[in-house]
Structure formats: C-alpha cells, structure tokens
Amino acid sequence: MGLLVSLATIQVGYAAPGLKLIDSKATQETKALYHNLHKLARKHILFGHQHATEYGHGWSGEAGRSDVKSVTGSHPAVIGVDFSGLSGRSPEAIERTKLSLRKQIADTYDRGGVVTVAWHFSNPVTPQTGFNWKDSVSAPAVASIIPGGSHHEQYKAILQTLGSLANSVKGKDGKLVPMFFRPYHEFDGGWFWWGKPHCKRDDFIALWRFTVSYLRDSLQVHNFIYTFSPDCLFKTEEEYLDRYPGDAWVDVLGVDNYADFGRNGRYNLQAGIAKLKIVSDHAEKAGKLAAFTETGLESIPDTTWWTNTLLKSLKAEKLKLAYVLVWRNDERSPTHFYAPYPGQASAPDFLRFYKDPYTLFETDLPNLYRWKKWLIF
C-alpha cells in the first residue's frame, strides 16, 4: 500500500462477542494478533506470499530479499512457510530444517509481519510416496495415525518435533512467535493422502481434534492459531462444513481456490466470490477469523489479474477476510511463480494493487502483537 492511510479509529482492547482463540492459554502476542486482525479485516486485507523471503524467481537465500519487495519496496504482510521438512528425513536434516524455519519465522515477526504455516508432510505409513496420493502405492494413512491406529505413536513423535520447534521460535523481544498453523489443507480433494477419498469423515475429524489437543494440551504449544482450509469443491455452507471438526477446534475459516480465479484460463469469479462469502459469513457467525488461505495464477499471464480479478473479488460482497496468500515463486522454474518479479508482465498492475488502501503489506502494518487501547487505521 506504500503509505499507511488512517481510515478509522478502532478500539482493539475490546473483544468482539464470541471472538476468542480455542486455546485459553494462548500467549498474549497470539491473542493480540488474532483480535487485531479481526478489527483490520473490516476495512483491509493483508497480502501474503508463500516462501517469499526464502527464495524467489531465479534466486535463493538472500537476506532481506523477496520478489514482492523488489517490485513494491515492501515484503508481503504475511509470509508462508512449510513444516514439510520436519518428518520423514534424517535427524540431521530435520535439525537443519528447524534452524532455517526458526530464522524465517523469527525474522518475519521481528519485522512486524505475520507467519502462516502449511504442512505438506510425507505419508507416515508409506513415506516413499511423499505427501501426494499415488494410486495403488499410497496407504490410506489417516485411520492408522489417529488414536488406536497402528502408526499413532509415530504420529505423536512427529507432532513432538513440531511442538519443539513452535516452543523454541522467539523474537528479539524474547516472546514466542505466533503462527497460523494450517494442517491438512485441501482435504476435500483427492491429491493428498489425507484427502476425502482416502479417509472416512469421522476419522478426519478425529485426526484434526487429536492434533490440536496433543499440540495444545500435551505439548503446551500456545502460539498456534488453528486454520481450517478446504479447497473450493463446495457450493453451499453445508458442503463447506462437511468435515468441520467444530467451533471448539478451529480459529480461522479459510479456503484455497485457484480453479475459479483463472487456472488453465478458466474464470468463474461469481462462483469464487460466492465461496468466499460462505467462508466470511460463517466465520462472522461463529466468532472466527476468515481468510483466503491460498490462491493465485501461475505465471500471471493476465497482466491485470491483480486489480481486475483478485482485488475486485476481495472487495465484493463486503467480505471480511484477514489475509490472502498467493503461492510460491520457484527459484529454478521459469514458469512456476505466483507473484511478480521486476520486469514480469503483471508488475505494473501489482503496484496498483499494492497502492490500493484496502491492501496491507508489511510496511503498512501497525504493531499487531501488542494490545493497545486504540489502533489508528
């Protein structure tokens, strides 16, 4: 957005009715982030990019760099990381991953940004198949890792690795860094081993509830904000909530949607907006945050996609969404990228998207991690 625009005076020390985290022991910084984003979502949305500061189009591991910053002068407000490297590998490799994640997460927090965590983790029963479902090879593992399953203890050990990381990532202020934790995303599709065709509804709900309970209550992780995000294979609220574990187990209602926003040249913005409205409306009714947890257009061949497709959709129907995140920019592939880099065809339009008062980037953010009586925005 460039320059922060003062649009309203919002009191953030006051919690909206029913708006509370599912973790009663959540850190003060985690609580503050959750409530501050709820207030900001009335008039703004935070822009996010997966792996933005780890690597980008043609580069990797350069301190202070992101493709978004190279275009706009600011990092994204939300940085996506992934816990994929915390299981199914050697102990040495896992420790290296922990070191890298700690730095990315802590640096984002220290700059005032927000961290969201995806979890593409390898099938615990058939680790050789990775996180994707491979017909006739992958095992339907969900039933095996819930309580009573053959690989339940192995799953607990994986969660212990996640918990040890979560409880060791601190900012320069010595505080644990809050994170949006988004496990088992796009579960309504069949492309991941936890997908709908590969597990029973009750088993998926049991897996979600155990995961939250074990991290929160047994491992004492109190800096996670639990985010529920199916893909866009629903048309009604009832379908959206088909595998919902319940309000006591979810903090954020999200949706991943590439299909309605230009994938393979196909646009159905009316359908995409309708799905965002289902998510936004139900979140408000349930006292939760809502978010557009993944979207984007690979290679961004549509030079006005940012303002004519994404921004128009986000502004429709008075949606209240905390953030929108586009997928990563691969460092080697010439075509696998979802945010512009300098010289990319959509960069001028992205600058218009950036400058719109509705969108917030990292340099636009107030201190989201402190309770203040008044937040000027």
From TrEMBL:
GO terms for molecular function: hydrolase activity. Keywords: Carbohydrate metabolism, Glycosidase, Hydrolase, Secreted. Gene3D superfamilies: Glycosidases. It is an enzyme of class 3 (hydrolase). It catalyses: Random hydrolysis of (1->4)-beta-D-mannosidic linkages in mannans, galactomannans and glucomannans. Residues 28-363 form the GH26 domain. Coiled coil: none annotated. Pfam families: Glyco_hydro_26 (PF02156). Belongs to the glycosyl hydrolase 26 family. Its EC number is 3.2.1.78. It is found in: Secreted. SUPFAM superfamilies: (Trans)glycosidases (SSF51445). This is Mannan endo-1,4-beta-mannosidase. The lineage of its organism: Bacteria, Pseudomonadati, Bacteroidota, Cytophagia, Cytophagales. It comes from Spirosoma flavum. Signal peptide: none annotated.
